Amino acid sequence: MTGGQRVELEGLARSHTAPAREVRQAKALLSAADGVSNAEIARRCASTPKSVRRWRSRFAAEGPAAVGRIRAGRGRPVVHGDDVVEAIVDDTLHTAPDDGSASWSTKSTAARYGIGKDTVARIWQARRIRPWKVETIKLSTDPSIESK
Fold it and tell me: Distance between CA 110 and CA 90 in Å, rounded?
């Protein structure tokens, strides 16, 4: 570990705004540089020695940029495609619900497509769609509106 890398890791280890994963790995790598064993580092960081070995090898290969990074392919896979997302957006913006409601809800949209309501909410949020806030014009039925 070079002096510049150590300074960068020390700053990250003291950070209150960085993600907890990065802070924990920075502290572990600093302990490893001080000669602490993998088992002791794992105990201090509430992790496993295998994880500590992975952090150390990734740091040795890629440097400080590898701290806190999650390997590609981790996490829950996407179960719906772009065609479903586009259909949801299109229906939300251009159609009305079958039940006579004024606008789509996350629950009604989710039921129509067989996905979770939170997924629908994330799709709407990413595209800034708010079907409950539709801009409408209220027309007056007063026959003398023009003279007023």
Answer: 14
State the pTM of this model.
Answer: 0.53
Q: Assess whether 94 and 62 both reside in one domain.
A: no
* DSSP category for residue 95: -
For residue range 26-56, list pLDDT tens digits in order: 999 999 999 999 999 999 989 999 999 999 9
Specify if 43 maps to a domain.
Answer: yes
Q: Please report, for residues 60, 116, 123, 130, the alpha-carbon distance to residue 126 in angstroms, rounded to integers and kept in the order given.
A: 37, 16, 5, 11
Q: Indicate if 56 and 87 belong to the same structural domain.
A: no
- Using a 10 angstrom Cβ sphere, with 0-12 exposed, 13-18 middle and 19 or more buried, the burial of residue 139 is exposed
Under a CB-based contact definition with an 8 Å cutoff, are residues 13 and 30 in contact? yes
